[in-house]
TrEMBL record:
Protein source organism: Actinopolymorpha singaporensis
Family: Belongs to the FGGY kinase family.
Record key words, sorted: Kinase, Transferase
Protein's name in the database: Xylulokinase
Biological processes, Gene Ontology terms: carbohydrate metabolic process
Keyword Nucleotidyltransferase listed: no
GO molecular function: kinase activity
Pfam families: FGGY_C, FGGY_N
Residue stretches making up the Carbohydrate kinase FGGY C-terminal domain: 300-456
Length: 510
């Protein structure tokens, strides 16, 4: 494993009565398993770290066996912790996880090589070339998804050009949750959410052969797993059962991937124009839309949610990772964030941040592989609190920029590790200039996977009653009139700075 212990504990002390359901969220840095009871209440959580390795500059990979072992570890710990494992086994194991990247598998669903993470930048040259020659534009107008270095198309094209033997030895170019699904159940499939970027036709909800040809990958089409609707489902094999400590035959579902799973778990309203924000490793901004009209600058992706309904998603490359780096730089911890933000004021005394810290650049609300972070306005009088606030403000402005591109009109539901900071949560409300709603469920990704899995497997569960019960427990944070006005002015300065920086990034790449 990763040298880290499985952590967790009961979310509340009451015993889970009746049927239970396990949701697993296979994140980039943390893998989590949450237990939900027959009323949809989260009862317990177990977590384990995930390891991303950096074998070369700009390359980010994960060991699939480590990821799989961590999934087994957290599920076993979760189930064993409930009455010593003596109760009835869960009625469902529902998977979600990180999207994008490429997880190359052989015919048995085992790793051909380490997984290429969505963070990876090795295919930046290919992505830049496609943007220059119009391929990205054509794909975006066709599918509603724009390509960036860590998405499957440029990564597969990179392997096809530089290491074709790796693809020749592979049977499936999978996504994270689908790799786990195949190892647990033997089912080789994906869902419409993961298939959305970039090969899925959002109308037919199947792969678009012309898009594969535009990317020079028509001869590799057999690497794409079948798209199962509403989700891939199966049952635990003997090998899978031994891994997670559940009975053979336990129902398993896979999907949607973490962005739409979190939106579902947060209770994103069906009303067109409502939004959802994930303040996690990525800063994901999503808006429910009723019309499929890929317009504007190519960026983000369009995820089918149901008949005549889609999720317009703008997943920026860096969210909490930018704050993590900043805290390490100034010698502080996450426990210091609230006190540091509480002592400052909007504008961070003139310190301003462009939060593009990923070495792969940015993918939303624009695609620029050369995008880089910037801190301006520093003097010898700049305090640690000013620097931390400037980064937090920059990330919040990036969210506003993404929401504007996605067409936000209504309310915003919010989740993710970043909102554990109450001050940062308030800052988001002020910077967005609208109320933000926090779900009462701590692990909305795992919860969304369970909701989707129950629907896909046909389990007789009244999830509508779960939603009604959950609605009464949500927290709404309203923007302050004064701070919201100040942030509206700061945001205009931020947008002007982004426009200037984009010109510089392009000139640097020439």
């Amino acid at each position: 494993m990763n040298g880290g212990a499985v952590n967790g504990g009961a979310v509340n002390g009451r015993r889970a009565a009746g049927p239970t359901y396990v949701g697993v969220d296979i994140g980039t840095s943390v893998i989590k398993a949450a237990l939900f009871d027959g009323n949809g209440e989260q009862r317990a959580l177990r977590t384990a770290p995930a390891r991303v390795v950096n074998p070369r500059e700009g390359w980010f990979e994960q060991d699939m066996d480590e990821v799989l072992a961590a999934v087994g570890e957290v599920v076993r710990a979760l189930v064993d912790g409930q009455d010593g494992g003596a109760g009835d086994p869960p009625a469902l194991l529902a998977l979600t996880g990180q999207g994008d990247g490429v997880w190359l598998l052989d015919g048995e669903g085992r790793a051909v090589r380490p997984a290429v993470s969505w963070l990876d930048a090795r295919a930046a040259g290919i992505a830049d070339g496609w943007r220059a020659d119009g391929t990205t534009e054509a794909v975006f107008r066709r599918t509603g998804g724009a390509m960036f270095p860590g998405c499957p198309a440029p990564v597969l094209a990179w392997f096809d050009r530089h290491e074709p033997d790796v693809l020749d030895r592979s049977v499936t170019a999978a996504y994270c949750k689908d790799m786990v699904m195949q190892r647990l159940t033997g089912v080789r499939a994906t869902d419409t959410s993961d298939a959305s970027l970039p090969f899925l036709d959002p109308v037919t909800r199947d792969y678009a052969p012309d898009v594969l040809e535009w990317c020079g990958l028509g001869h590799r089409a057999d690497l794409l797993a079948p798209v199962a609707e509403p989700l891939p489902t199966g049952t635990l094999t003997a090998e899978g059962a031994a891994l997670v400590g559940l009975p053979v035959g336990t129902p398993v579902s896979a999907g949607p991937f973490d962005l739409p799973a979190c939106a579902l778990g947060s209770g994103l309203a069906a009303t067109s124009g409502d939004g959802h924000l994930i303040v996690g490793t990525t800063l994901a901004c999503q808006v429910a839309v009723a019309e499929l009209q890929p317009g504007g600058e190519p960026a983000g992706l369009t995820i089918p949610l149901g008949p005549d309904r889609w999720l317009r998603s703008m997943p920026a490359m860096v969210g909490t990772a930018a704050l993590d780096w900043t805290l390490k730089l100034v010698g502080r911890t996450h426990d210091d964030v609230d006190p540091l933000l509480a002592t400052g004021e909007p504008g961070a005394h003139g310190v301003r941040c462009l939060p593009y810290f990923s070495p792969a650049g940015e993918r939303a609300p624009f695609v620029e592989s050369g995008a880089r972070a910037r801190l301006d306005g520093l003097t010898v009088q700049t305090s640690t609190a000013d620097v931390v606030r400037a980064v937090c403000e920059g990330i919040a402005f990036a969210a506003r920029h993404c929401f504007e591109a996605a067409g936000l009109e209504g309310e915003v539901a919010v989740c993710g590790g970043g909102i554990r900071s109450r001050e940062w949560l308030r800052l988001f409300a002020d910077a967005l200039g609208r109320p933000v709603r926090v779900s009462a469920c701590p692990e909305v990704g795992a919860y969304g996977a369970v909701l989707a899995g129950i629907a896909a497997t046909g389990l007789p569960v009244d999830t509508a009653a779960w939603a009604r019960d959950r609605a009464a427990d949500t927290t709404v944070v309203n923007p302050g009139e004064g701070p919201a006005k100040r942030y509206a002015e700061e945001y205009e300065r931020y947008r002007a700075a982004v426009d200037r920086a984009r010109t510089e990034w392009k000139e640097r790449q020439v």
